[in-house]
Amino acid sequence: MQAKAFSIAALLIGLHWGSAPLGLAASLIFVVNGHRQTLRTQEIGGREWLSLRQVAEAVKAQLEWDGRHRRYLFRLPPASLIVTPGHSAILLNGRTYLLSTAPQLSGAEVLVPAELLQLALEEIYKRKRIRWDAEKRLIQVEERDYSLRGLRFHTYSDHTRVVLDLTKPLAFSWKEDPSQIVLRVKEGVLAPHFQRQDLSDGLVRSIELKQRLKGVELSIRLEEKRGPIKVFALKGPDRIVIDVFREGAWQLAQPAPAMEPTIIVIDPGHGGQDSGAVGPRGLKEKDVALDIGLRLKKLLEKRLPVQVLMTRSEDLFTPLQQRTAIANHAKANFFISVHVNAAMRSRTVGFETYYFTKDPSDSSARASVLQENLAVNLEGVGPKEQDNYLKLTVTDLINDVYRDESSALAELLLDELDQILKVENRGVKSGPFYVLAGAAMPAVLVEAAFISNPLEERKLMDETYRQRVAEALFEGIARFKARYEKRMGMTLGGRSG
To answer: What is residue 41's three-state secondary structure?
Structure first.
């Protein structure tokens, strides 16, 4: 899933806070229910800012100062927003989101990065059409609700799947010829951000959506050589699915058998501007995760006949969805995302492992999901888009196929951490982790320690301890590799590990 084409990030200037003097004022035009108003922005250090008061006035929200907690309360049913000057985390409808920089006090005003406007609008006008025009610097909330809200596609080994996401069930019909399939959605209303998609993946050349008088028309241009086409509707959520198969393929695609060599993708969590959790002495999760990941890579390459790929090998920010995309593109056999945890209570200690499920398995899993998914907000992906992607991943991609294997991998990693680290074993858990969504292989996330605990932070500062963590992860992967090969009736990488 790509960041929204109409994201405010494309409309605004820069994303880096600095100490440069106040620049020239600019403006955004905001139109809702036919009422036109101008929002004045300020540029500071290459970023564009709005006053929180302006945002509240634009959407006719009530803005209150909470002196006890030194924060602002922004109320407009169904949206509620809590902003704390000096803190980049905001609370929107009970969920935490991370802004690119913290709101700042400027005299009697509190300035917020302009991206906050996008978050607020998505919550307030859930079912209306929000149109962003970067050239005209125009934000328009249109009265007409749209019923086609998303287009997704994925190329598998024997077919290409195109999914049209709907806001409600709609009648449709289609015609096909050797060069294209045309699907018509009766009374469909197209969201304004769709663009032509050029695939050229051997089956599909391009995908294009157009608004017609009586509905929406979806045109899929096809390559010359292809097999049958299957079109059907699914519910929960509502969507139309078009599968274009290769010649000779007559069933829905199944996960392809693993090919030699065994490919393992190691994903050191966070990186770049996303530091992850930070310990009381300043140790950063991104640095610990990278060090453990590189140590694990060396162990795997030295002791097993495998190929190891890293989602990052230095202090760089890699979008969460891109991490599993790297693994899918490489046709990897296993995906391991390495993290350390944090908690409000500094005495919390131990390790835990996770696999992907639609809902968190317990309250601590919910807290970990919230913390690890914060990085999505740095990518310009709005909260509504996040929820849709995670929900649709469960139903349309192939996580379910690997759920049992992911659970088994998480269990083996946990067992080895238990034997080697000798600290509290917090168990195998699960939840809707964005970094695991869409992985076409067994995939797990490891929380190796609580960096928020001073004692565990001190351990993580020790290279010997980080090596022990890597050793435990290696042993778990080696055991899983042998087990997986036996269950699948195959030998990966030439021989068992």
So the answer is: strand
Letter string b/e over residues 234-252, b meaning 16 or more CB atoms within 10 A of that residue's CB = eeebbbbbbbbbbeebeee
Q: Which CATH architecture does the domain made up of 148-245 adopt?
A: Sandwich (2.60)
> Could you read off the pLDDT of 374-396 as tens digits, one per residue?
655 444 444 444 455 444 444 34
Strands 306-310 and 262-268: parallel
Report the amino acid identity of residue 121.
L
Give the torsion sign (CA, 27, 77, 168, 204): positive
Residue 307: phi and psi, rounded to 5, are -110, 130
Q: Are 398 and 439 in contact (CB under 8 A)?
A: no
Amino acid letter, residue 110: V
Among the listed residues 408, 411, 409, 404, the one whose alpha carbon sits nearest the alpha carbon of residue 426: 411
Say if residues 459 and 465 touch (Cβ distance below 8 Å).
yes
Query: 220 to each of 35, 198, 396, how far by Cα in Å?
Result: 39, 10, 19
pTM of the predicted model, to two decimals?
Answer: 0.49
- Helix (H) / strand (E) element for 346: namely none
Half-sphere CA count of 410, side-chain side, radius 13 A: 27
Of 47, 86, 96, the residue nearest 374 (C-alpha) = 96
Scan for tokens 């999505």, then name that residue: 376
Cis before 85? omega within 30: no
Single out the residue of 298, 276, 307 nearest to residue 289, CA to CA: 276
Determine how β-strand 351-356 pairs with β-strand 306-310.
Answer: unpaired
User: Inter-axis angle of helices 383-396 and 115-124, to 10 degrees?
Assistant: 60
pLDDT tens for 229-272 read 888 887 756 789 898 888 875 443 344 444 467 899 999 999 98
Q: Give the type of residue at 4.
A: K
Q: Which two tokens stand for residue 322?
A: 């891109």
Start-to-end C-alpha separation, the chain: 35
Residue 437 buriedness (CB in 10 A; 0-12 / 13-18 / 19+): buried
- How many Å is the Cα radius of gyration of the chain? 24
Domain-wise residue ranges, the chain: 8-142, 148-245, 262-494
**What's the fold here for domain 262-494?**
Aminopeptidase (3.40.630)
DSSP structure class, residue 278: B
Cβ burial, residue 395 (10 Å; 0-12/13-18/19+): middle
Q: What CATH class has 8-142? A: alpha beta
Which of 340, 343, 337 is CA-nearest to residue 364? Answer: 343
CA distance 295 to 297: 5
Going by their DSSP bridges, the two strands 138-142 and 26-32 should be labelled as parallel
Confidence at residue 401, expressed as pLDDT on a 0 to 100 scale: 60
Tell me if 8-142 shares its fold with 262-494. no
Three-class SS of residue 44?
Answer: strand
DSSP letter for each residue of 434-450: TTTTT-SS-EEEEEEEE
